[in-house]
Amino acid sequence: MPSTVQHLTLDNGLQVTLRHAPQLKRCAAAIRVMAGSHDAPPTHPGLAHFLEHLLFLGNDRFPLDDGLMRYVQRHGGQVNASTRERTTDYFFEVPQAAFAGGLERLCEMLARPLFDLQRQSREREVIHAEFIAWSRNPQAQAQFALLQRVSRGHPLSAFHAGNRYSLPIHCHAFQTALRTYHQRFYQAGQMVLSLSGPQSLEQLQTMACAAANNFATGERVEQAAAARLADNTLTPQRSEQQLDLLHAIENQPTGMEHAIEFLATWLTDARPGGLLSALRRRGWGQALEFSSLYSFAGQALLHTRLKLNGGATDTQVRTLLADWLRFFRDVDRTSINQEYAKLQRRRAQTATALELACRDSASRPYQALDTQAEQALNSLLEALVQHTLPSATEQWHLPAAEPLLAVHRPADQYSHVTPTGLSISSLLPPMRQQGFVYVRWQVSAGIDERLWQVLDRALQPLRERAERAGVTLQFDSCARFWQLRCTGSPDAVVATMAETLHALQHPDASSWIARSADEVDKMPIRALLRQLPEQLIGGPDATLHAGEVCQSDLQRLWAHARWQAMATGLDELAQQALNSVLQDIPGKPGLLCPAPAKTARAWQMLPPAANEQAVLLFCPLSSEDEACARLLAQHIQGPFYQRFRVELQLGYAVFSAFRQIQGINGLVFGVQSPNTSHEQILTHIHGFLTALPSTLHCDAGIRQALAEQMSEPTMSNAEVAEWAWQALLAGRGKASLHALQQQIHAVDEVTLRQCADDLLHAKRGWLCLANGPAPLHGNWSKH
């Protein structure tokens, strides 16, 4: 059943979009304030960003401990905010039962913040820590350098993030500007509220009207237009194998944002006949990104980033791009307009409540190209086409229809036996209209990691097509395990799995050619998180041989590989079709042994080297104690954030959570700090855990809230599927969410404190990943 949408303007001027999406389980709210960093006084760079931070620190009605962030965390949801050039967005997603409370807190915090200097002083240090990390991040600096190429008269070229020196909180003029900015823009006429969920439109409207009462009546403030984006033509910028092209667009009609998204969809399409396919076939490039860095009042700064192979000059690549744009401007686009409508319907079907609400608040719903956007597209293409460049010798054509968007169920409905090695989980019912398939192989010791790289390259074209069709396809390597995860519309998942299994056994010739590695994330804490699974269960084995790998090596690997799989969310017909597809899965079915976790106190120094110190501590806990471990994590999350980010002000990247990784349960603590050493961070974590047992109590309300989070109707579909898969990996294939809820209710204070004590004394070991060496004291072993 498709979504139904209603648009309202309330009496106080608040614009509201309501979306009833019956396939959703969770609810989301997004508020867009029509003001951003370019609307703040230029004398105080970062004021808008600073205000965004201040709003989360609580107010008289909902103090920090009961504010939006803590409330959403307690209910297992997600919350965030973003300050852009001309807009500021606030958004959250929670289970249905917590939605009204979350919406009340969101509107209250935006309407009635506290501006006391003590809060401002602490939060300014957080802003400064973000600024230091930003200034040291090569990717962020490369982006900033791009923006320096626009006109000096345009605010896009200026600094707007804020730091300790641009936010003079003790200055009367700054405080006046801060309050004036809030009063002028944080009123109903300057906001758009979007709600999405499975509730009826009437129920959503009742909640929206109640929320609107928080905001002062107002009218839309006309945001000042900016100067021209560019004084001259923006020249290409080349850095090693990367070519960056900027296009400054002026005086575009309404609908430009939709037109840009439509153009990006086809410009980055890797199928034959398009630009990316031509680049790859000629050996000139491998990747192409197209995005809008800025868009406001008919202006847009468009960015085309190409990852090249070195086989062509910049002029040749630009000529090819200009030629494709001319082709796309002149071709009859009827067929791809129809396919785009299918794409948008699929995206809407598989989107989360949060994605739907955020797109609605930005006036960018998943919809087909309408007449207004079509006219904007024609105008945009005219502005982009470079008549000065010659034509390329390329035969362009529009891509063929995507089969993953037109999946038809097979005519024969004969029953197919469930393959040995496939577990069918009933935890996610078919009515959710989202299917999940997991496959995990254990490969023989000594097999070269390069074979996985070959297969990963072989899957790349399919991965790109699947993503466009609303299907997520992941293929990961961790020690001697390879894992495949496919999720999306059930019929599309089955079709994608069929193509995937073929590619894994018969990779095309180009997949055997090694390519340069993708850029790694330079943010240390994210890099450590990415490396955690392999470090937890042990790194890869030594290579089999030093020579090149070939098809016969792959055949030998599959001959000795063992696999285990799980499916959930598929109805009977889709499951039968999957059973048929999995008859061709390579390897032999077999129960895989749960991955063992190390029990020592181990420290592993890992890249990347950086100017900031990052520590990621994983503390394994017994899979039999999941209820207690989750309750402990619930107790820890808020106080840990308060202690490390607010009181100690170690940095902005601070978190703690319960995690299931490779079938291993545990608590993870992460801190990234610009000024505190690795040893000091660990000392603070140890001190926090030392004081923890005496602060714990088994409040019935906390247990009830956690138990409610761990029910299928409350959890997201992805969370349900992942929980079932992790239980299977841990050897608990019969585990049930209902049993887990009962166990949560049964946890007593003695058990909870014992779990905390085991955590403190590393009864099951500690694995500490850091981008620096281990402390001299503490009996750390090298992992």
UniProtKB/TrEMBL annotation:
Pfam families: Peptidase_M16, Peptidase_M16_C, PqqF-like_C_4, PqqF_C_3. Its EC number is 3.4.24.-. GO terms for molecular function: hydrolase activity. Coiled coil: none annotated. It comes from the Bacteria. Residues 631-725 form the Coenzyme PQQ synthesis protein F-like C-terminal lobe domain. Residues 177-330 form the Peptidase M16 C-terminal domain. Keywords: Hydrolase, Metal-binding, Metalloprotease, Protease, Zinc. Residues 435-567 form the Coenzyme PQQ synthesis protein F C-terminal lobe domain. Residues 16-157 form the Peptidase M16 N-terminal domain. NCBIfam families: PQQ_syn_pqqF (TIGR02110). Belongs to the peptidase M16 family. This is Pyrroloquinoline quinone biosynthesis protein PqqF. It comes from Pseudomonas arcuscaelestis.
